[in-house]
Amino acid sequence: ATQHLYIILHAMTEIEGNCSSHDEFYVRYYVGHRGEFGHEFMEFELSPSGKLRYANNSNYRSSTMIRKEVYISPAVVEETRRIIQSS
Predict the structure, then answer these.
(1) What is the pTM of this model?
(2) Which pLDDT score, from 0 to 100, does residue 51 have?
(3) Distance CA 24, CA 47 (A)
(4) Is there a contact between 66 and 73 (Cβ–Cβ < 8 Å)?
């Protein structure tokens, strides 16, 4: 089975690598593979509005897809941005 990893980062108004705190920030993390149990994956998505979405699809023992959605504070969005930009 082949495993794939995708991380998408996007700052809507990024100019020359400098982002202000007013830029929109979007992060998507995906890891998955196709194997014995079909397409299995885990995904996180953080939008500028603070919406954090999680999905986990595993067909092991006839499991169903798990989806969760929460809203986080602007401070947590900014800290996430800071951590990613500094790495």
Answers:
(1) 0.66
(2) 94
(3) 8
(4) no
